Amino acid sequence: MNRFNSLEFRDDGESRLEAASVRPDEAFHFERASAAFADSDFEQALRAYSKVLEFNPQNSAAWTGQVRALIELGEFHEAKVWADKALERFPTAPDLLAAKAVALGRLGDTKAALAFSDASMEERGETPYLWLARGDVLLACQEKRAAACFEKALLLAPGDWLVRWLAARIHAYYRKFTTALRFAQEALQWNPAGVSVWLETGHCQLALGLHELALHSFQQARELSPAHEHARAALLQLARRGWWDHLRGFWRRLFP
Amino acid sequence: MKTPPSPYYPPRAGFWSPWRMVWSGFSSRISHSFTQRLGIVVGLAPWSLALSIVLPGFGFAAIGWRRVGLAAIAVCAAALLVFILGFGLPCATTAVAVTLALHSASLGAVLARLVPHWRAAAAPMACVFLLLAIYLPLQAEIGKFLLPVQAPSGVVIVHLGHPVRLDRGEVVAYRISSRAPSEAEAHLYVHDGIGLERLLAQPGDAVEFTPAACLVNGSPIPRREHMPAGGSLILGPDQWLAWTSFAVRSHGMKEEDIAAAFLAHSLVSRRDILGIPLRNWFWRRAVLP
Q1: What share of chain A is helix, strand, coil (3-state, %, to 5)?
Q2: Does the distance separating the beta carbons of A142 and B116 come in below 8 Å?
């Protein structure tokens, strides 16, 4: 990440809105943040969620979104710090508790992660994310019950590609690439035009040593969005693979 | 104009983040195993884990394979007995190898149960850990007190340490070190090693070599191989005479030169003396020179 990445420039969408004399509001920024998150542009999602909070600091979904974006960026310690700050305002927000549980689980504090996950499940409301987070924590604990949590999350969101994509990302983080690929392919069935889904599918195929399929997936992603930075980076990564990566892929297919 | 940072923008990871990620990844794989799985493993309390490290073969019993564990402990106990009784002999080395193998396998079984993700590497990791943490330090500790020396008559165990008093007639083990050859020894090369010889003379003794005998303070002792045919010397305050028996491979060297080299290597200082050989090691009786 270079030093200018976090500078907040007004993008074209915002400029166009101003040109059309429509003032961007909380809902507008929230929609942009959600879209960026689903597009796996987590840096942009972070900035958009912070815009939402500038409009309405009481928007717990935006706080949760920021924590989740930090987790997806691999900044677990920062996610935990930010979750703590958010929990000062919303101590019983289930999604926030679940997000903190995920951050703790990935930091290795599985005992606390389980406690926060339990707390999130005890609160009212049952969202797919609660179950995804539960599954994430159980995977960190190497528990076999994790699979049931992901099934429950899918049951709560039938036909939702985002939940399947998130499940794929979680499994890929824990290096369970065959399961991740299954979820990614399910997500593709529901959203074949999703660049992030093609990318995730490609990364899983690449990890399993399925180079031709991975190349196809990345090319699909680039066709859908030629300017997508991640698609270009993925194709570059594929081109740079050496014999060691091939060997690792072969090994993972033998011993998933 | 620069936009002021939003108060709702979260803190971001610094340059040290990748290192913290490595640690997180490591701890997330390990921590659960040692906090949660300990309860699952049959009877594997922390003391049980510690015992698996210290006691060879106990690891099998700790994870519930009681019969295998008992058998492994019995084999290791037998191997320990063989090691003690046969110290210095090839059977002792074999006994250590067997113990290490069983110890690594049992501790590896515990590790595999605790961290299933690493089960393929558990036994090799256990072996390396045990070698570094127990076996090599133990070998070094034993090596401070006892040293098996291969003598022509068999293995002799030497009790290491500098004796307070060394008298004429005592058998000692001493260090033979190669040194820069003198003019007379220009064509002579002596290998490093350990000598096991009887002390012929002690500090202050007058030693005289004749073609028929060697006289120590006027008392004759039998001539040894490659002793000089003439000459005398008085031993210094830190000099003992222990006539060294070398296997000599000479190629046209004069006998006087060989004798001079033997004499030079037979004058032993206190610093070179390693210890006193034990006459008995259990049922093994040492045949000393």
Answers
A1: 75, 0, 25
A2: yes
